[in-house]
Amino acid sequence: MLRTIHFHRVSYIFIYKLGSGKSVLKVRIDMKFGNSFPSTEVLTDQVTQEMSDNISQLQSQKFDWKNYKYSSGSDRIKQLLHSQLDKAPSVDDTLPRTVYESVKFSLPGRYEVIQVLGKGSYGTVCSVRDKKNPSNPYSIAVKKITNIFYREILLKRAIRELKFINYFRGHKNIVSLIDIELVTEKPYDGLYCYQELIDYDLAKVIHSSVQLTDFHIRHFFYQILCGIKYIHSADVIHRDLKPGNILCTLNGTLKICDFGLARGVAPKYFAANQSRHDITNYVATRWYRAPELILSQKMYDKSIDMWSAGCILAEFYGRKPKFMGKDSMHQIYEIIKVLGSPSKKLLSSFGSIKAWNMCNSATPPHKKVEWRDIYPFACPDAIDLLDRLLRWEASDRLKVQESIEHPFLNEVRHPEDEPICPWGAFDFSYEENLTSMQRLREYLINEVSQFKEERNCKLSTPHVYKNITIIEEPEQL
């Protein structure tokens, strides 16, 4: 069936504008939705080509770049952030709540579930529409995190996610959080995060069959770096950058999401935490994980995000992940096959058993393979940028600003799109007191309340909903 996607009001300030002043606010998609995201075939044949054409227009047409770009400068960003508070509806409502039994969702009566977008161990994601505003029926994505009060790791990730998305709100390349609520009525209990609905993730775009030109890749990669710059300027590292955590609209706008693993790198944070950061198996999905996360016992820094960015750039050209390790050490050997064997001096500096074993291995060293031999169709500037991002030595990798200034991006670069976070370094001192499950629960409740107070909403937390109507799962479109 034919469906119209309406961009949420929160993101209106981020929409591209043609020189004539006509805003690109709506996109019509002719497709049939299944139980999850549209299939790669549907995305390829009917959507990705339109996305590709939209991006190509940026190259072929003369745009009014002042209107096309959203703003510049810290003061302007602050102004935009405050103006957003009145644009998005609150989830709180006097109407009865409606429960969707098959997905264990409980929503205010004004919202209707349209589509189940995905399910995982963390919970469920659905798209919903606001029935209270039929004249403006834009869609919202609702992510429900289940078992939030009983699993420490979920509590910590939820708190981080809320704090970071709220802290970074306003940048066009970082996903926006519209509202949040805690539901305690079983079996619908959980943390409900209301976010702007984005069409696809970057993985679906990369793995489609539509040709991506150098201009497309420049356009996408520049936005990723602008988002990273904003994050790094707050002394935060994302730690889980990958195409699946970068959302993509049909007009080609990218938005970084999933801040549940993000951490701080501010000097005062290091001073208060002399021990090594908690590097666990889930930090940075393996294929995008910097080698020092696997081999080193020392502190890591923002360069791990730049390694991940380099992996994404390689994936644009290869249309699949370049380093596809089956486990941690196999991941290292996949890297060795391309970058060559690391020096014994570097391995010794890592200070781990794994690095020591590699240093004393009798295996003959591998020689480096040139990126131009791997991707002969890539332009020389892209090859050079790849080479300077994907290096064994973290200190040898380009920093985000250096990457933005690389000649590869000259054609798409606009400095007014490269602001830094106006709030300065993120303060992680709140974590010092979160030493028990009870304190984590209390802190999450307080975060939800504080977020809603900033939106001038009244929230009684915890809230147990009594007036519930049971209906079946919505018909899949």
Can you offer a commentary on this structure?
With 477 residues, the protein is α+β, with helices and mostly antiparallel strands. It folds into three domains: 2-84, no CATH class; 97-198 and 433-471, 2-Layer Sandwich (Phosphorylase Kinase, domain 1), CATH 3.30.200; 201-417, Transferase(Phosphotransferase) domain 1 (Transferase(Phosphotransferase), domain 1, Orthogonal Bundle), CATH 1.10.510. The chain is built from 16 helices and 15 strands. A five-stranded antiparallel β-sheet has the order 5-6-7-9-8. It has a three-stranded mixed β-sheet with strand order 4-3-15, with no helix packed on it. The protein has a three-stranded antiparallel β-sheet with strand order 10-12-13. Helix 4 (152-167) runs parallel beside helix 16 (437-454), helix 6 (214-232) packs antiparallel against helix 9 (303-318) and helix 11 (344-350) packs antiparallel against helix 12 (353-359). The longest helix is centred in the N-terminal third of the chain and has 21 residues, at 40-60. The chain is globular, with a radius of gyration of 23 Å.
CATH superfamily of the largest domain: Transferase(Phosphotransferase) domain 1
Structural class: alpha+beta
Taking all Cα atoms into account, the compactness measure Rg is: 23 Å
Total of DSSP H or I helical runs spanning 4+ residues: 16
Helical percentage: 25-40%
Number of domains: 3
Descriptors for this entry?
kinase, disordered C terminus, Transferase(Phosphotransferase), domain 1, Phosphorylase Kinase, domain 1, alpha+beta, 477 residues, ATP binding, 3-stranded mixed sheet, Kinase-like_dom_sf, 3 domains, serine/threonine-protein kinase, 16 helices, nucleotide-binding
